Amino acid sequence: MTIFVTCNLSARTVFLFNIITVLVLVTYLVDLEKKIANAKDSSEHDSSLLNNQVNGALLSNSFSSQNLTVFYNRVPKTGSTSFVGLAYDLCSKNKFKVLHVNVSKNAHTMSLPDQLRFARNLSQWDLKQPSFYHGHVAYLDFSKFGSSSPLFINIIRQPLDRMVSYYYFLRYGDDFRPHLIRKKQGNKTSFDDCVKEGQAECDPNNLWLQVPFFCGHHADCWIPGSSWAFEQAKNNLVKNYLLVGVTEKMEEFVAVLEATIPNLFKGALKLYRKGSKSHLRKTNMKIPPKAETIARFRNSTVWQLENEFYEFALRQFEYVKSRTLKPDLSDKGQQFFYEKIRPK
């Protein structure tokens, strides 16, 4: 009896051992199949990448659509309405959101609580990404609030031309909203006469706008003729802006953006060249200033700094354009590659 039980137990043990062995083998084989499948997928992925490479460097310059945010803190009267019109026409096709940042009373700076709210909102509002924000707001340092920064872009204009355009815009309006009555409607004083009479509206200090827009929210940014603000603006333009164009070269600006961020701007150049968006907002009447008027402005520190900032931005843009575009404004494509990769 005892021997029978022992033998019976031994048989059960062998049976259980066999079952466990089979289970282990099945588990191993399943795991092996998964590894083979993953290796195959990885190989296909690598092959796909190689098909999009030139000597080992990826051709694609697309940003992740998960977190792509562009902020155009547009300077007034620089052609910004025409450019924004392109974004609104492209947003459905290219699948991104366009949002206008409207600051109360047309202020160009935000209160400190609003700065914090805006920085956190813009960087964390995932439902509105990829996105293109635009508004007449001075540069904002997002790192100050512990938030990731958007890609800043902007357009500036020859400073006196911008000021003259705005002067006549307040009197005669534009073709964008022709029936809207502006606050200086009916005032027919020319810009030259305004300067000659020493009126406050055409004081050279009123040129001080593009420098502070790039300088930011510091109090000294808005002191006309501040050399500190001028240096800060140049520093921000180089370090914190993806691209800054000029009104006089809007077409080239659009072409560089399309080459750089195709996620948002694919088709922008073609749309711009159609003409419907190239001059969306044009002042109804504008009289060029006389030579003596221009001479008065050139003697002011504000004009000198604003003009130097414009020339600085123009040089930088021309350099970026020359490295990015062919003469016909098409994309030069990738101009770097990897080599001597070790170990193989």
From TrEMBL:
GO terms for biological process: heparan sulfate proteoglycan biosynthetic process. It is found in: Golgi apparatus membrane. The chain crosses the membrane at residues 12-30. It is a single-pass type II membrane protein. One of its GO terms (cellular component) is Golgi membrane. Pfam families: Sulfotransfer_2. Keywords: Disulfide bond, Glycoprotein, Golgi apparatus, Membrane, Signal-anchor, Transferase, Transmembrane, Transmembrane helix. One of its GO terms (molecular function) is heparan sulfate 2-sulfotransferase activity. InterPro entries: Heparan_SO4_2-O-STrfase (IPR007734), P-loop_NTPase (IPR027417), Sulfotransferase (IPR005331). Belongs to the sulfotransferase 3 family. Homotrimer. This is EOG090X088H.
